[in-house]
Design goal:
This is MYO5B protein. There is one protein chain. By secondary structure, this protein is an alpha+beta fold. The chain has a domain of about 120 residues: Kinesin. Helix content is about 35%, strand content about 10%. It is built from eight helices and four strands, in the order ααααααββββαα. The strands form two sheets. The chain has a two-stranded antiparallel sheet. α2 packs across α3 and α6 crosses α7. The longest helix has 15 residues. The chain is elongated.
Length: about 180
């Protein structure tokens, strides 16, 4: 079953449409009562999870630089806020900051974005019986392997290569067994 489809455009600047008051405005609303928004999609998934007691999925898809990671972040912020766990555990920050090594290995500079994810992410958020977030994990898939050996003009390889080059003079670098 395919549910709601939302088309969002990355404005490449901060807009006041993702603030806490907007989360509360969408919380408890029925789909279609408010303007289309990532919070409306998140609210619908949250309500169906609670009502039907079934797992829900939100698929965020788009081209490079479309704002997929940011949209996922806003959905997590919504869940953390309406589930009462935003202030308690800061789960959004914990999930998004859970793997800086993965970001270094999987992100690269593109012509559209200086820190573009070059891999897919599957984020699974766990809720307790009161529908509060109790944890999350992130899995990666489909790393863009061609970037390792070729980059388009004005693009870069994965961040990890430049981080390794920048740290080549550090004593810890010798322990990695990498040569110049």
């Amino acid at each position: 079953f395919l549910g709601i489809v939302l088309v969002a455009i990355n404005p490449y600047e901060q807009l006041p449409i993702y603030e806490q008051d907007v989360i509360y405005a969408y919380s408890g609303q029925n789909m279609g009562d408010m303007d289309p928004h990532i919070f409306a999609v998140a609210e619908e998934a949250y309500k169906q999870m609670a009502r039907d007691e079934k797992n829900q999925s939100i698929i965020v898809s788009g081209e490079s630089g479309a704002g997929k990671t940011v949209s996922a972040k806003y959905a997590m912020r919504f869940f953390a806020t309406v589930g009462g766990s935003a202030s308690e555990t800061n789960i959004e920050a914990k999930v998004l900051a859970s793997s800086p090594i993965m970001e270094a290995i999987g992100n690269a500079k593109t012509t559209r974005n200086d820190n573009s994810s070059r891999f897919g992410k599957y984020i699974q958020i766990g809720f307790d019986r009161r529908y509060h977030i109790i944890g999350a994990n992130m899995r990666t898939y489909l790393l863009e392997k061609s970037r390792v050996v070729f980059q388009a003009e004005d693009e870069r390889n994965y961040h990890i290569f430049y981080q390794l080059c920048a740290s080549a003079s550090l004593p810890e670098f010798k322990e990695l067994g990498l040569s110049k």
